[in-house]
Amino acid sequence: MRSKVEHQHLLCVRDEDGTPLGDYYADLFIEDCLIAELKATRTVAPEHTAQLLGYLRAARVRDGVLINFGSPRFYIKKFILEPVASP
Predict the structure, then answer these.
(1) What are residue 32's phi and psi, to 5 degrees?
(2) C-beta of residue 23 within 8 angstroms of C-beta of residue 55
(3) Which of 18, 25, 43, 74 fits a 20 to 30 Å CA distance from 85?
């Protein structure tokens, strides 16, 4: 069985009310439901996590992974963006 993986996949970014804000190119977009953000840095910074969470929110994608190949130890962390409850 083959998985669908697209690199530099174009995603339309929208704000909370659905207004288009622009485009974002996901490093990897897997099975139309998972954004993989790839890094090659010595350490993973809080900005990298914030970047991925922002992409998930703006692209309305629930699942993401942050992968860093640049440190002495391989780093991978999965994020699940829970829907915001309505008041």
Answers:
(1) 60, 20
(2) no
(3) 25
* Coil, helix or strand at residue 75: strand
Residue type, 6: E
| Whether the Cβ atoms of residue 30 and residue 60 lie closer than 8 Å to each other | no
Cα distance between residue 50 and residue 58, in whole Å: 12
pLDDT at 84: 54
**Model pTM?**
0.78
List Cβ neighbours of 37 (8 Å cut-off, separation of 6 or more): 26, 27, 48, 51, 52, 55, 64, 65, 66, 67
Nearest to 37 by CA among 2, 77, 10: 77
State residue 44 phi and psi, 5-degree precision. -85, 125
